[in-house]
Amino acid sequence: MAVDLHKFANPARFLRITSAIFPWAAIVTVLLLAVGLYLALFASPEDYQQGATVRIMFVHVPAAWMAMSIYVMMAISSATGLIWKHPVADLSAKAAAPIGACFTFLALVTGSLWGQPMWGTFWVWDARLTSMLILFFLYLGYMAIWGSFDDQSKAGKAAAILVLIGAINVPIIKFSVDWWNTLHQPASVATMDGPKIHSSILTPLLVMGLAYTSLFLTIFIIRVKAEILGRRLRILRLAHVED
Amino acid sequence: MSTLNEFLNMGGYGAFVWPSYGVSALILICLIVLSIRHLRKIERELKPLETDRKSRRRRKVPTGDTVQ
Fold first, then answer.
1. Residue A11 domain-assigned (yes or no)
2. Complex ipTM, two decimals?
3. Does a structural domain hold residue A57?
4. CB atoms within 10 A of CB A212
5. Does residue A4 lie within any of the structural domains?
6. Among B11, B32, B50, whose Cβ lies nearest the Cβ of A51?
7. Which pLDDT tens digit goes with each residue over A100-146?
């Protein structure tokens, strides 16, 4: 039987582009992590109130940023997949999900480790922490849906709908610190009046944020390649059986 | 040595700062390793099918001097 090569044209181009970006993304990640960790652990001062625990922020806040932005990226590519049936869109969201789940988990755990010395508790059921936990479950649910359908195009559709419904959680996370009383501090970087943090602490935070973004891109390229080749594998196996 | 101890102590908060960095490193390194291993596995499984498909496509070409 003939395999429709048109189906591969687009993903093939996608793979070529990502393969070209990959070594640069990996190098930039290593450099940014080296600089970011040096600034975070050695060069930045201790906070006058929080002492050295402020250093937890440099792994906590970037992880939380990634947790939310990866989810937004998944929602956009899922919508693209549903509307235009773009072949790489669903697979992109699928490839990004485990990375987002890991960052969400890290935001929760490092936040807990910061909460105990500063708030006196590992966990409170307030809006910010609870909505972040819901985000973690949305990631897990999304991955579970992909795993529970044999028909991958059906799985992609169901998973995309879950992501889009769950997207309502993203503004809730963002504004939870303004809408409800909480132990969590309000936004101090992305505010209307500009960052409220001194540059000696803001710079390492932003460098770590860029490092995490570039780390995401690096892992994403590996995973999306596996997804595209995995789909090719399924199609070829099917062709093999039908012959 | 005392500066190293001071650094590890993190002003008394070492027990919270280091596990934060440790768990971040652990989870992210595991994610990288698992992602690469998953890709390698798929590439390994795909290889025989790709070569098989190519050879069959060659066979479909009418016999003669046109076959590369």
1. no
2. 0.87
3. yes
4. 26
5. no
6. B11
7. 999 999 999 999 999 888 888 888 888 889 999 999 999 999 999 99
